[in-house]
Write a structure and sequence with these properties.
Distance between the termini: 62 Å
Structural class: mainly alpha
Mean pLDDT: 90
Radius of gyration: 30 Å
Low-confidence stretches: 1-21, 181-189, 193-206, 475-479
Largest sheet: none
Number of strands: 0
Number of helices: 43
Strand content: under 5%
Shape: globular
């Protein structure tokens, strides 16, 4: 009986913990700290307690005087608690206070529900349907349609022509059979079948069609819109076959915009193999555009860009290059410029490493977002090293270092230093080698190259810690990143009020909107979630994702406590137990689980790998036979880690007791790693295999190269943080130097 009561009590306490978290401040202290914002968090608690009246009272107070996000969220919560009439007044009040697009959508949605058509018409006067939120356009156009407001067709065309197609476009047409019959939508006819049913669309007997005809100048105009709308729908759904049928028959009738050119390019690229024809078609389109058109740049960009794609397909490299450069010159945004330049560099990579190196050296000073080109640089690095073009590698390093992302700058700097050290590059000095490693040590937020450079420079852990850890009183914001204080108040409030489950979803919303939360708040909420994970394991990956993003934004502010959150020992007892059982160093297994699953025990990959150690069912079945385990679940953390630890140790013993090779095999398969090791491509002119850090850079699979870097970096950090291992000791134990 006592045992039963104890179990029930533990269950109740666990659920209370999950519900309310692990806060320590008293109610009066919380209200003193958060003032009117406290009412928002209290309102959330009252909702969970199903006390609607008290929740409403709290939300009203926070909505009136709270900080930005606490106030706005209070309004949004109130809308679900009050009657329709009050919803309308609250939404108007919310829009009046915030004057942003989110509030505008809420306000117009409530106007639509209340059939306040005149107010919607007045509101629409200030809405640009070429730019506005799609949900906002959806409600306004529905109001125009239902009440036969003038201007409907003009706004409809703006919305369909200039915006990327969204679910709200699809929803709008599905709800209006006269524009896009519901049965036809499900049927999705070919272009010829569409022509066969056009008489149905012209049936003037239908009163609904007669209503729609009042909006369009004539029935043919309505039919043209139907064709155009269907084309954009098909392209949106990636049904390029049907989109191509409409494009090839009716392109001349379509309204043109940058988005329409983009859809046309994708449609022809994926639905037709007449690449030369469409290369010439889009190049002609680009050359015939009106320079005075306000959308000239966007149209020219997509027309030239797809002309380049088509020319590349038929290996008209010079023509493709000309079109990509024309697209870059016409780019309406830095993102478009980088996109065209990426394809230009990617094309050069397919030709030869010399060509690619020359293109990178020529264009690296022109790109806008260095991170966008990381994959190109990594592939180029691999090609040059695998082909033993070591001098060319260092030339690329000299050119790209000021312009590459910090991660790629670190990679090229470290490897260049190693090539100089190994005598594989001539006429380079000792000073250049050391300078390269010091650059690598001070670049980026990934730890592999930092640690490898520190090892080469002879750093002890104490010396490396001085490079990595910020002083406790450091107040500098790296990159001088603009932070949103109101967002920080909301997230910290969830933690202080014990609302752990609300932190990560809200943080993700901020990330999607590129809203940055301060280092201090990010550290606190990551630490809070990690502590909460002791009772609810789902918080482990949430904590790790938050602190990882924080590390990339504020690398110069990280304390040792941040690094312990970045490299946590989640599931410590069971990982330690299985490491002892199978003779695997703990830092190695923690690194593997961190890299594979971010300590998410329930994760399933698209390839079918499951759990903490990301094992495939087929692999697990073989392991189970060897371990004589009849019944198991890969979503059970203990069983998953046991199988993963045994499997990693087995690979290690079968690959000459080399942990790096075991990592490669764990990720890419044992047969591949065996082929790579024996291949002449990974041996120097004296048939000696390159040291493992250079061998890693020559591995042909991008994912496997990245995997090896992650595990060596993470294992070294775990060894330094928890096991008092010098980095040199850890690295020497992991790979042959």
């Amino acid at each position: 009986m006592i045992k039963k009561i104890s179990v029930i009590l533990s269950f109740v306490l666990l659920n209370l913990f999950v519900l309310f978290g692990c806060h320590s401040l008293s109610e009066s202290e919380l209200h003193g700290k958060y003032k009117d914002d406290a009412f928002y968090f209290e309102g959330i608690k009252k909702i969970k307690e199903k006390n609607v009246l008290k929740a409403s009272d709290c939300f009203r107070k926070a909505a009136k005087n709270g900080s930005y996000y606490c106030s706005k969220n209070s309004y949004l919560n109130l809308l679900g608690l009050v009657d329709a009439q009050e919803c309308l007044s609250l939404s108007a009040e919310m829009y009046s206070k915030f004057q942003d697009e989110e509030s505008a959508v809420v306000y117009v949605r409530e106007l639509y529900k209340a059939k306040e058509w005149t107010k919607i018409l007045v509101f629409a006067d200030n809405v640009d349907f070429k730019l506005c939120d799609d949900e906002l356009a959806y409600y306004i156009l529905n109001a125009f349609y239902e009440n036969q407001f003038s201007g409907f067709v003009e706004k409809l065309y703006d919305w369909w022509t200039y915006k990327t197609i969204s679910d709200f476009h699809v929803k709008f047409l599905k709800e209006h059979e006269v524009l896009f019959d519901d049965q036809l939508f499900d049927f999705q006819p070919t272009a010829q079948e569409f022509l066969d049913i056009e008489p149905f669309l012209k049936d003037e007997v239908s009163p609904e069609i007669a209503t729609v005809a009042q909006f369009f100048p004539d029935d043919e105009s309505r039919i043209k819109f139907c064709r155009f709308a269907r084309f954009r729908i098909f392209a949106y759904k990636r049904d390029y076959r049907n989109a191509f049928g409409l494009f090839s028959s009716w392109w001349k009738d379509f309204p043109k915009s940058p988005r329409v050119y983009s859809d046309a390019g994708k449609t022809c690229f994926y639905a037709s193999n007449r690449f030369l024809k469409y290369a010439q078609f889009f190049e002609t389109e680009a050359n015939s555009l009106d320079l005075d058109d306000p959308y000239f740049k966007g149209k020219s960009f997509y027309a030239n860009f797809y002309a380049g794609r088509f020319y590349e397909k038929v290996t008209y490299t010079s023509a493709a290059e000309k079109c990509y450069i024309a697209a870059m010159e016409a780019s309406p945004s830095s993102e478009n410029f980088d996109n065209a330049l990426w394809y230009l560099l990617d094309m050069s990579l397919k030709k030869s490493s010399e060509k690619a190196a020359a293109y990178v050296i020529k264009w690296c000073s022109h790109w806008n977002d260095p991170d966008y080109f990381d994959d190109c640089l990594d592939i180029l690095s691999n090609l040059l090293l695998s082909e033993r073009k070591f001098s060319d590698f260092v030339k690329v390093y000299d050119a790209v270092y000021p312009y590459a992302s910090k991660e790629m700058a670190a990679q090229f700097a470290y490897v260049s230093g190693r090539l100089i050290e190994a005598g594989l590059v001539k006429n380079r000095s000792e000073e250049e080698k050391v300078a390269a490693w010091k650059r690598s040590l001070n670049c980026g937020s990934q730890y592999y190259y930092k640690i490898m450079a520190a090892k080469r420079l002879g750093y002890t852990n104490e010396m490396l810690e001085k490079e990595l850890y910020a002083a406790e009183d450091n107040t500098l914001d790296s990159k001088k990143t603009a932070v949103d204080e109101s967002a920080g108040i909301l997230l910290q409030g969830y933690a202080d009020f014990g609302l752990a489950s609300m932190i990560y979803p809200e943080w993700r919303k901020f990330q999607s909107k590129k809203i940055v939360v301060s280092y201090e708040i990010s550290h606190k909420i990551a630490d809070f979630l990690f502590k909460c994970a002791e009772e609810n394991e789902e918080f482990y990956p949430q904590s790790l994702r938050i602190i990882s993003k924080t590390a990339s934004l504020f690398p110069e502010k990280l304390l040792k406590s941040d690094y312990m959150l970045l490299f946590p020992r989640a599931y410590k007892d069971l990982i330690s137990a299985h490491c002892e059982e199978y003779g695997v160093p703990e830092e190695v297994m923690f690194a593997l689980v961190r890299s594979e699953s971010y300590f998410d025990s329930q994760i399933n990959s698209s390839a079918g790998a499951c759990g903490l150690a990301q094992l495939m069912e087929s692999t697990a079945a073989d392991i189970a036979k060897k371990l004589k385990v009849a019944d198991y679940s890969l979503l059970d953390p203990d069983m998953n880690v046991r199988f993963g630890t045994w499997y990693l140790q087995n690979l290690y013993s079968r690959l000459d007791n080399n942990w790096l090779h075991a990592f490669f095999a764990y990720n890419g398969g044992k047969s591949r790693i065996s082929q790579w090791i024996s291949s002449a491509n990974y041996q120097d002119s004296y048939k000696r295999r390159y040291d493992d850090d250079l061998f890693l850079e020559m591995v042909p699979l991008t994912e496997t190269r990245g995997y090896g870097r992650k595990l060596i970096g993470a294992a070294s950090m775990y060894g330094m943080l928890y096991y008092d291992k010098e980095i040199a000791e850890t690295i020497n134990g992991l790979c042959r130097q």
